[in-house]
Specification:
- The complex is a heterodimer of chains A (195) and B (167).
- Chain A has a two-stranded antiparallel sheet with strand order 1-2.
- Chain A contains eight helices and two strands.
- Chain B has ten helices and no strands.
- Classes of the chains: A mainly alpha (195), B mainly alpha (167).
- Chains A and B meet through α2 of A and α8, α9 and α10 of B.
Chain lengths: 195, 167
């Protein structure tokens, strides 16, 4: 006789409120994703600002008498923001599938086969997001709520309130993953859209 | 009592009657009664050996009617439930229950997550849940608007509609 599955395994999404349960696994829309992106932008700004202040503190320690705030031009600041955003988004999507903004809004970025993004896919997606952030608007018009970045790298952003372990795309078998993705798309976007 | 004993008893009665003729009637009645009861018991045993009495009773006797006349409440009152419970294998009974399904249905019915959030959750988590729900509602509203715009964009004037639609 096979061992009985634990209650935790038998109750997926049990900490999710009843009102939000039908949405779990569906592709997220523009509003939620925009809020998450704004939160991520704030995180990047905070990191860059923290780095700037830390660097100034270091200069103050080295040259206390002749200390003045470092003059960083607009180009350097923007480049720093871009690099930090690139690293931050790539790392988060590759390791956990969710950035701070995604965690805040209960979103999960998944790969083509329903698993976590591989690092180069995450990097490409991060590059697309940072170079052309307006591509996010595409998810409002896309039948499957997919932004320009999603279409380019084959990713999906779904509502996933309860943190769970997500296998990488490489760990998923392709036919099953494709079937899962199709089922999620049919049940997700298809349920919210009528086209 | 066997048949031989019955004969012996009859002979004994005859002997006593010969000795005391006046006491004959009373003595004969007593001995005849004893003889009859012994014979009846012997006959019943012999019949029981050859006939399945249980099946016979089940066939002939209306047990439902018989039991209907029994005061089961009185029997239950006299029953020592504690002693029965002590002999009961509770673990075997619990193993037969699908506790996970029961727990699932109970949690779904009472919305346990909401209770936990209500008792332990902070104002921040409530705000966060509200923001997420609002976001999802806004997503749906936006989707509806976009769908309406798309439907309007696809609408073709009546004169342009082809007579037959080929798949």
């Amino acid at each position: 006789m096979s061992p009985r599955p634990s209650i935790r395994d038998r109750l997926p999404g049990s900490v999710v409120p009843v009102a939000a349960r039908p949405y779990q696994g569906r592709t997220a829309g523009l509003v939620t994703r925009s809020v998450a992106a704004a939160a991520d932008a704030l995180v990047v700004l905070a990191v860059v600002l923290g780095g700037y202040l830390g660097l100034n503190g270091l200069v103050l320690l080295v040259h206390p008498r002749g200390f003045t705030f470092l003059d960083t031009g607009l180009l350097l600041s923007l480049t720093a923001c871009w690099v930090v955003a690139l690293l931050y988004l790539t790392g988060c999507w590759c390791l956990t599938g969710r950035t701070y903004g995604c965690r805040l809004m209960g979103l999960l970025v998944m790969g083509r086969r329903g698993g976590r993004l591989r690092w180069w896919t995450a990097f490409a997606r991060a590059a697309c997001c940072t170079v052309l952030p307006i591509g996010l608007l595409g998810c409002a018009w896309s039948p499957r709520n997919r932004s320009l970045q999603d279409l380019l790298v084959g990713s999906r952003v779904v509502y996933e309130w309860q943190p769970r372990w997500v296998p990488t795309s490489a760990e998923q078998s392709s036919p099953q993953g494709d079937a899962l993705e199709r089922a999620a798309d049919d049940g997700g976007a298809g349920a919210t859209r009528k086209d | 009592m066997g048949a031989t004993e019955g004969l012996w008893s009859a002979a004994r009665v005859a002997r006593r009657a010969a000795r005391a003729p006046r006491r004959l009637s009373g003595l004969a009645a007593r001995e005849a009664g004893a003889l009859l009861s012994g014979s009846a018991a012997w006959m019943a045993r012999r019949v029981g050996e050859h006939v399945d009495l249980t099946a016979l009773v089940a066939q002939v006797v209306d047990l439902d009617r018989l039991v209907a006349g029994v005061d089961l409440d009185a029997v239950a009152r006299r029953l020592d439930i504690d002693a029965v419970a002590r002999r009961l294998d509770v673990e075997a009974v619990v193993d037969r229950l699908d506790l996970v399904s029961i727990v699932e249905s109970v949690i779904d019915e009472i919305d346990l997550p909401q209770i936990i959030r209500g008792s332990t959750g902070s104002m921040a988590s409530d705000t966060l849940t509200g923001a997420r729900l609002q976001g999802m509602s806004a997503d749906e509203a936006l989707t509806r608007i976009v769908n309406r715009l798309r439907a309007r964009g696809r609408r073709v004037p009546a004169g342009d509609v082809p007579a037959t639609v080929h798949p």
